[in-house]
Amino acid sequence: MSDITMITGAGGAIGRATALRLAADGYTVLCGDVDLDGLRETERAIAEAGGAVRVRAVDLQDEAAIAAWFAEADELGRVHAMVNNAAVYPSLPFLETPIATYDTVQAVNQRGHWLCAQAAARRMRGTGGSIVNLASITMHGGWSDLAAYVATKGALTALTRAWARELGPDGIRVNAVSPGAFPTAAERIHPDPEAYDARVIAQQSLKRRGDPAEVASVIAFLIGSDASFVTGQTLEVNGGWVMA
């Protein structure tokens, strides 16, 4: 039976980089997303690198879909790690954000990951494991036009601490990674990519754009044995933009 790592949002840049890294580390990687084209690209990249991968369409708003995904994991091995990465990122002024949009962001970015963390933790009891939540630099600055998204990232950071406290006696570690601005599809909301690059680099201490693989390496650390005494923490991966 293989050690399984499950990753939401695995069709995007950070999710794909994480899946590639964890497959290279020897895990069987179960990749979930609603982006089927992105999932296929992730699957192809891992297969070409010789890794073990399964992909599945998983809508985090659908509790039954999450349950089916974990049932597939049970057939393949032991759930060792859960990476809660998926997020929707609507850019709207607070006063123009419909409650339906807010509800969708909460359902995907927070409620869906609550369900994934519960399902994973139930399987990790007795054997231990690791849950990693993806937070965001935006929760520090309260960025304009992203209130619904920022709310979910703050919630995941708080839940990281609560889950770590409660699940620690079962040998389950829970941590968060808080990425800064990385070149991903989320940046398409910015109309002038070059100006945005310049603004990001000006804010950072390290004067270059980050690579999603650099987030993946921190996630791999938190999942692995080198972080065996690390829990309840949020690691900032932002090139020195915010030093929390």
Shape, principal axes of CA atoms: globular
Structural class: alpha/beta
Instruction: Write down how many β-strands occur, each being a DSSP E stretch of 2 or more residues.
Output: 7
Mean pLDDT: 92
For this structure, the CATH topology is Rossmann fold
List descriptors:
single chain; 244 residues; alpha/beta; Rossmann fold; 7-stranded parallel beta sheet; 8 helices; 46% helix; globular
Structural write-up:
The chain has helices at 13-24, 36-48, 63-76, 99-124, 138-141, 147-167, 193-203, 212-223; strands spanning 2-8, 28-33, 52-57, 77-84, 129-134, 172-179, 234-237. With 244 residues, it is of the alpha/beta class. It has one domain (2-237): 3-Layer(aba) Sandwich (Rossmann fold). α1 (13-24) runs parallel beside α2 (36-48), α1 crosses α8 (212-223) and α4 packs parallel to α6. The chain is globular, with a radius of gyration of 17 Å. The chain starts with a strand and ends in a 7-residue tail after the last strand. The model has no long low-confidence stretch (mean pLDDT 92).
